[in-house]
Amino acid sequence: MRSTAGSTTPTGTAKRPDPAEHVRRFSTAERMVHRTTGYLMLVCLVSAACLYLGPLAQLVGRRHVVVTVHEWSGISLPLPFLLGLLSADFRADLRRLNRFAVYDRQWLRAVRRRLTSPEARPAGKFNVGQKLYAGWIAGAVLVMMFTGLLMWFTGLLPFISRTSAIFIHDLLAWAITFVVLGHLRKAFEDPEARLGLRTGYVSRSWAQRYHSRWLREERDGSVAERADEV
Hints:
Elements: E1 22-24, H1 28-52, H2 54-60, H3 63-75, H4 78-84, H5 88-97, H6 102-112, H7 128-152, H8 162-188, H9 191-199, E2 201-203, H10 204-210, H11 212-229
Antiparallel strand pairs: 1-2
């Protein structure tokens, strides 16, 4: 029977994936950053819904508690990211997310033309959609924090009215909700991608199909490391 990433032995201990069939995609630190950020975002959005939607607010009640949960979950959103900066793997992936390669343009053209073949959509460790999503959500969170603080501490910046802060905060909250739902939809359509975030490993066949440039970088890096050792 073929082993799968995250499988266990009969004794219940974790079994390391076969390097011939799997490749490590994310370190433990990266997976914890993603998971913790996701939980905080979920709490923030659910508590916001309990404050914004009348029927839900009446059902839940305890508005003061919900406000406190919403405020602190929102202000805590950057913490996993900041702690993740202590990880070299996390910093390396940030550099990947911040760089656009020549083949990324080909990926965008393929999306516009509705081409779905792997050859038409070359990608490194992250495709352009993931890079754009990461940049957009990072900027949106910062704006949400800024406007939230203006609502929390009235008079913090007198030249910006609280009404303006509320308008931007609410409008961006709806945008984040739809974008996050789209992100979750794409994740549920790709079990292998979820496996990578859950166990840290993905199959080489999946990596070759959707992230061939990254797999090539990993292979070349391993060869370079062995050459250095020699």
